[in-house]
Amino acid sequence: MLPQLLLFLLWFEVRTVKGLPQAMVTSTPLPLNLATQSEYHDVARAAEAAPELPKPEMYSLRVESRIKSRYATTVVSSRLANPANKSQEVFFSVVLPETAFISGFLMEVDGKVYEAYVREKEEAKQEYEQAVAGGQAAAHVAISARDSNRFTVSVNVEPRKKATFNLTYEELLMRRLGEYSHVVNLHPGQEVRDLQIDVFISESRNITALHIPELRSGNEIDPEQDDRVNSLARIERPSPTEAHVQFSPTVEEQHELAKKLGNKKEDAGLSGQFVVQYDVDRDPQAGEVLVSDGYFVHFFAPTDLKPLHKHVVFVLDVSGSMDGRKIEQLKEAMMAILDDLNNGDYFNIVEFSYSVTVWNLDSTSQSAVFSPFNAYGDSPNPHPGDIPAFPATDEYKIKAKDIIKKMRAGGGTNIHDTLKTAIRVAHEGLQNITTEDKPEPIIVFLTDGEPTVGEVRPNKIQATVRELNFDPEASIFSLALGMECTLK
User: Fold this and answer.
1) Cα gap 50→86, rounded to integer Å
2) Tell me: the pLDDT tens digits for 334-345?
3) What are the distances in angstroms from CA 430 to CA 74, 239, 310, 388, 456?
4) CA distances from 488 to 236, 414, 475 (A)
5) What pLDDT is stored for residue 205 in this prediction?
6) Main-chain dihedrals φ then ψ at residue 462, nearest 5 degrees
7) Which residue, among 477, 373, 482, 364, has the nearest Cα to 422 in the 3D structure?
8) Contact at 8 Å (CB) between 211 and 180?
9) How far is CA 216 from CA 19, 123, 258, 263, 459, in A?
10) Three-state SS letters, 74-105
């Protein structure tokens, strides 16, 4: 029976330091008992003069993923050593895919193996307090709500000793843009002598496509980057239904890749995403049903369906906090998004800061502009005027782009009135579309801040949206930029 370290996962929001979540909940240090102020300064000077300890070395990082029928089980194994002549804390941190869940964690310190286990929040807290009261080694591992895909644990390692961490997580791969993607996040914080990733794929149907793009520097997807092949990845195909992908860069190759990814800090190691993209042969009619251990999943990805016609209301934040790089990114994104609209689609442009502007692409001088004081009063249904939904033709796309290029940042953030207006624009636009097949109403809402004008209580804003968004109900996609967006 392995000894168990009482290690619990608590799901709550923790404070952040310089934008990063504090994932460890540590004990409070004992107070200093100093007789005089001069003694305090003597201790402080001695601490400042103490030589800096050599940082812990991660000498091995192995990642093994086994994908069976589009279900991936990944084991991350990290080995660290404390080269100092004093004990110090070492950290093990893994960024998980958004849809993954942790199924196991083992930790070996000084020859002893500890097994962690998961408890409900209240139960974990109670057991932790009992363990502390009984003098047992115990720890909380917290995952913040804002950064819920990062797992971090720390342990104190004695001089010249080693620690090994093994984390297992699982996920069902989703098919997007015609392929399944398996992502492994690499953030060791240093160059690693033994770094290796192995991805084993086993499918019930033939693997029809397999692609390993270059390492990504983050969550942004660059189509041109995805077209380039990772030259350091090796692919083996034992059979038409199996594949083995291996990635094991040397220290020198890690150094070059880090520079290529924009990491300017010396010896900081890789910081990016290793991605495996593949697809399988599919039945276009009934799809595929897989059964395992009493569970089943139905994969259905038809290829001959026509694109869904849509009426998109783009709601763009141009408040003062968007000034600089953010508004430039907004403009770049909108240029690409407008180009992707299909024949049969319709759209509107709504710009907001302190006031709300519904742009009339036929005559910009007749665009509707509302402020929180002169537009709506107490009416829950602001009327944007007789502004139709515009077809996604090249002519109207060019007019929309000209308007977006001229946008400037300034003013407060009037989210409440903006969402009321956007819902009304979506409803009014459908009434003006005379085609037999009515497009689906969609609102794309982009903001980088909290509401500062008009109604600023998020629960009240959400209640207004629920009250107004019906008959028909528009799908609302909220894109939040920055650290402090409340409406997500």
Assistant:
1) 12
2) 998 999 898 889
3) 47, 52, 10, 8, 29
4) 42, 16, 14
5) 86
6) -65, -35
7) 477
8) no
9) 22, 39, 11, 12, 37
10) EEEEEEEECCCCCCEEEEEEEECCCCCEEEEE
Q: Which pair of structure tokens corresponds to residue 74?
A: 């990944």
What is the residue whose two structure tokens read 């996604």? Answer: 392
- Mind giving me the DSSP string for 130-146? HHHHTT--EEEEEE-ST
User: What is the C-alpha separation between 141 and 151, in angstroms, rounded?
Assistant: 8
> 198 versus 264: which is more confidently predicted?
198
Residue 407 gets which letter from DSSP? -
Number of other residues whose CB lies within 10 A of the CB of residue 115: 15
Residue 15 has pLDDT above 50, yes or no: no
Q: Across 139-153, 215-229, 307-321, 431-445, which has the greatest mean pLDDT?
A: 307-321
Model pLDDT for residues 227-279, shown as the tens digit of each residue: 688 999 999 999 999 999 999 999 999 998 988 887 767 667 888 899 999 99
The answer to whether the beta carbons of residues 270 and 215 sit under 8 Å apart is yes
Token pair belonging to 313? 């209301």
Burial 84-110 (b: 16+ CB within 10 A, else e): beeeeebbbbbbbbeebebeebbbebe
- Cα gap 339→433, rounded to integer Å: 21
Q: What values do phi and psi take at 83, rounded to 5?
A: -80, -5
The string of pLDDT tens digits covering residues 362-396 is 988 888 888 765 444 444 444 555 678 999 999 99
Quick check: pTM over 0.90? no
Q: Around Cβ 196, how many Cβ atoms within 10 Å?
A: 15
Within 30-87, strands assigned E span 57-68, 71-81
User: Which of 477, 468, 479, 446 shows the shortest CA–CA distance to 310?
Assistant: 477
Beta pairing partners, 350: 315, 358
Asked if residue 75 lies in contact with residue 167, where contact means CB atoms within 8 angstroms, the answer is yes
Concatenated DSSP letters of 168-229:
EEEEE--EETTEEEEEEEE--SS--SEEEEEEEEE-SS-EEEEE-BPPBSSS---HHHHHSB
β-pairing, 440-447 with 310-317? parallel
Mean pLDDT lowest for which of 109-118, 168-177, 409-418? 109-118
* Structural domains of the chain sorted by starting position, each given as residue range(s) with its CATH number in brackets: 173-303 (no CATH), 310-480 (3.40.50.410)
Which of 349, 335, 364, 478 shows the shortest CA–CA distance to 421? 349
Angle between helix 415-431 and 458-468 (nearest 10): 10
CB 120 within 8 A of CB 63: no
Who contacts 266 (Cβ-Cβ below 8 Å, separation ≥6)?
A: none
- CB distance 41 to 35 below 8 Å: no
